[in-house]
Amino acid sequence: MGNTIQDQDSEECQIQKNLFNFECPIGRGGYGKVWKVELKKTKQCFAMKEMSKFRVIRKKSVSSILNERKLLSIIKHPFVVNMQYAFQDKENLYLVMDLMTGGDLRYHICKTRRFTESQAKFFTACIFSGLEYLHVLGIIHRDIKPENLVFDKKGYLRITDFGIARLISSDNSKETSGTPGYMAPEVMCKRNHGIAVDYFALGVIVYELMMGKRPYTGRNRNDIKEQALSKQILLKKSDLPAGWSIESADFVNKLLQRKPENRLGTNGPSEVKNHVWLSDVQWSSLFAKTLVSPFIPSNSENFNASSQFDFKEELDGFIPLDSIDEIFKGYFYNQHSGEYKPETTQSFRGKNRSWL
């Protein structure tokens, strides 16, 4: 016999805030705080996103927040920051995720500025491994950038933040969400887009690791858009820092093609994986995480977290509590319950799909 509704309701009540010890804040976002927490029963540590329901509603981000939780429930991979639990109380939503103690890539770019080719290649292999998995599932991340790539203690990168990720759609031209500087031209121009947008962003990141700056910069979104549309990046051997190969330049050049039909990865992840620059990557050892990373974050503080997290809620109008409860109804997930079956994952396998 399966669980009854009463059993399921009882299980939801088992995941509550008071089951965790809150150790310290490690970040903040637009909706609240990120904490390092310890599950009292197992002593295992996690990262917990605490998001104010009022802020989510005020910023008109309900669909984004619910979409992220839905996608995270079908994702489980060693190169993604996985969700372990999701629950709520009257005021907040809570996402309990894998704890990554190495800090995000942006933090380390600001500290290190440039990286060696071997470091950049290792980072690229990690990012690609996560993207390949997502793309096979039919998911486009759409916001690949250093802030959304975090290190574990062994120096392996994982992908996080699925707020604007979406399942591949034949009509997504009106969805222009993303981050200027990493956003592909077809997104900026409000055209239909596919997995190639994530590979354009990967190209920007490799360029940044190589050159110490992004290929397209500007004072605002329009400046960056104008540069990206008018200037095709074409790195030459003479442009490269000492120690970088011409194969690395070719990899970046092919990822940063303005037209998606010319871009590496448009026809599927294998195009990227089989590029000559990545030919010496030991993929099975990388997946097993038995390789020694060429960049291992120190044991010191790796977060740009402020100790001041208090803020005032400024709401336009009154929102009845029963309305809020209805909006976020079902915001619950337990990775360890054994109940979830990723039907969406299965539905995308075995389908012939266009990567465009």
Automatic annotation (TrEMBL):
ATP binds at K59. The keyword Transferase applies. Keywords: ATP-binding, Kinase, Nucleotide-binding, Serine/threonine-protein kinase, Transferase. It comes from the Eukaryota. It comes from Blepharisma stoltei. Belongs to the protein kinase superfamily. This is Protein kinase domain containing protein. Residues 20-278 form the Protein kinase domain. Pfam families: Pkinase. GO terms for biological process: G protein-coupled receptor signaling pathway; regulation of signal transduction. PANTHER family: G PROTEIN-COUPLED RECEPTOR KINASE/RIBOSOMAL PROTEIN S6 KINASE (PTHR24355), SERINE_THREONINE-PROTEIN KINASE 32B ISOFORM X1 (PTHR24355:SF30). Residues 279-343 form the AGC-kinase C-terminal domain. GO terms for molecular function: ATP binding; G protein-coupled receptor binding; G protein-coupled receptor kinase activity. The lineage of its organism: Eukaryota, Sar, Alveolata, Ciliophora, Postciliodesmatophora. Signal peptide: none annotated. The keyword ATP-binding applies.
